[in-house]
Amino acid sequence: MAQGTATDGLTIRETKDCRWDLVSLGEVMLRFDPGERRIVGARSFDVWEGGGEYNVARGLRRCFGLRTSIVTALVDNPVGRLVEDLMLQGGVDLSHVSWHEFDGVGRAARNGVYFLERGFGVRGGLGMMDRGATPISQMKPEDVDWDAIFGGEGVRWFHTGGVMAALSESATAVVREAMEAAKRHATMVSFDCNYRPSLWKSRGGRKGSVEVNRALMAYVDVLFGHEGDIAATLGEAAHGPVWHTLESYAPMAERVVAEFPNLRAIASTVRKPVTANRNSWSAFGWMNGETSEALKFDELEILDRVGGGDSFASGVIYGLMSGNGLKWSLDCGVAHGALAMTTAGDSSMATKAEVERLMSGGGAGTVR
After folding, report:
1. Are 353 and 316 spatial neighbours (Cβ–Cβ below 8 Å)?
2. pLDDT digit string, tens, across residues 74-109
């Protein structure tokens, strides 16, 4: 099999040899959004589709125009078909969605939903998950013909993460199986650690998540995360936000790569909440022995912060796939994430032109 072309140290399969630029593996849920209200007092909700790995595929499709597909599973009932309808609007290919029979009440399997308050000022955001017994959490190895996807159809880049891996022991095994198949077919693999305490509560908490991440790192080319997500010894970085400077990020990345030399790039967002709707927002990255800092928003005004990190990941992946280098890719990710957080819902509503305008220093004036 042709190995593709080398792009800044990343060997990516040729576009002409692949049906998909990116395939993601992850759960897609229905989000209930009370808007400016609290969940407990809401009498109406907007609904969106959302999921960490899916959001990346959607951002690459809708904002950057790439060919993307999602491997996921849904129960075939009206809620599942609503999620499908929302995904159809996002343009991500759904040919790899597995549909499961509905038993009438959801004992065997049910579609995941979650409720999320955006927060405001000193009141932080609040999320409540309701995602037990979902079909993708019950997915097992050999349920998906990965060789048909990566080999027969052809995929340039595969993306998954810690949210999918956290869903169950079998989901972790499926993530590993997919990564192994991707490597067999020379597909780039990215992994977003995306630690969620609620998902790891019954699987060892932070320590359990790190153990799983470490077991998967051998298959990863591009890591979205930081040392606290994969260090053998849990330190301060594993238990809270990590603040870096260019001088501190470089040795951190070198320590990670020394243990996992297969990693080709690392990208990490840096967010400091001033209030729920005003954050500083930036990122750092490492590739080919060099460290870069992205453009920085000191006090970014935020409408809905959910999905900002996923939009960052899709912007970085787009930049790296396009051969634009680490600094450009980081700037693209930060700008895309910033724009995604100015609209409601998990998914990006930004255009490529808007991202590039923000990257070049464009302001918030009305474009007529």
Report:
1. no
2. 999 999 999 999 999 999 999 999 999 999 999 999
